[in-house]
Structure formats: structure tokens, C-alpha cells
Amino acid sequence: MSYATVKDVLDYSRTLHEHARNLYQQLRDQTQRERVDMMLKLLAEHEDALAKTMTSTSESTAKRVLDEWHQFEPGSISEAISSCRECHPDMTVEELVEIALKIDDYLITLYRHMVSEATSEASRQLFENLVQLEETEKIRTVRAALSVNDW
């Protein structure tokens, strides 16, 4: 098992969100379907907001928390978004949502692991907050997908 600081975990999460955002933006450039384009736009904005949240979280978290070491096996970003290998411009909205939810679930699992491994109350609270954030964003994504028929 590898070790990483809390800052490393936040940077990994930010990078993952950025990669997902870039993927959605690339698919937007290629799709001809209006509903799919709108869902891709929403997902890209979702990932962009989360990437920015990771940056601001790093900036607002105490240095002593950011410097804490934890067991963390990051794996590659491509493994985290492995379902995106199946991406193509003619995907359905449902397929896109499935990919987005897999990314959210991956990070929720990661953050829950970090909560269980936390050595201080401050880092435990940080990762609990990130679990809540990802769960809230997951619900928003599902709601947006359910409302796609209204578009």
C-alpha cells in the first residue's frame, strides 16, 4: 500500500474531475444530438465545479491537515474513468449518466476509505464533507437526467 498526503488525495480528485470534464467537452464537440449535447454540457459544468471545489478546499484547509499522511493507493486516472473508454458521440443520455455516476461512486468510495483511515478529527471531517458533496452532486446528476425529457 502506498502513502500520500491529504493534499495529494485532493490533487488526485481535482485531476480526476478535470479529466472527466475534458472528456465531456470533447464529446460535446462531436455530438449532433441536442439532448446529449445539453447533458454533456451539464456534466462538464458539474465536473468543472467539483475540480474548482477541490482547489478551494486545498487552499482553505490547514497545512497541518494537508500534510497528514494516509494509506492511499491512487491507481491511474484512466482506471478511475475506465468506463469512459466506451465513450462515443452517439451515446444516450442514460449511458452518459451511468458514466458520471461511476465516477461519483469511485470518489465516494475513496473518501469513505479516507474517513476510515483518518488520523485526526480534522481530516476525518474533511473527507466526510467530501462524501456529502459527492453524494449531493450525484443526486443532482440523476435529477438532471430525469428531467432530460423536459428539454
Labels describing this entry:
151 residues, mainly alpha, Ferritin
Note down, in words, how this protein is organized.
It comes from Bacterioplanes sanyensis. InterPro entries: Ferritin-like (IPR012347), Ferritin-like_SF (IPR009078). This is ATPase. The protein has one domain: Ferritin, core subunit, four-helix bundle (Ferritin). Helix content is 74%, strand content 4%. The chain has six helices and two strands. The model has no long low-confidence stretch (mean pLDDT 89).
Q: What's the architecture, going by CATH?
A: Up-down Bundle
Instruction: Give the full name of the CATH homologous superfamily.
Output: Ferritin, core subunit, four-helix bundle
Helix content: over 70%
The value of Rg in angstroms is 16 Å
Major sheet: order of its strands? Answer: 1-2
Q: What's the number of helices?
A: 6
**Tertiary shape:** elongated
Number of domains: 1
* CATH class bucket: Mainly Alpha
Structural class: mainly alpha
Order of helices and strands: EHHHEHHH
Protein name: ATPase
Organism: Bacterioplanes sanyensis
InterPro entries: Ferritin-like (IPR012347), Ferritin-like_SF (IPR009078)
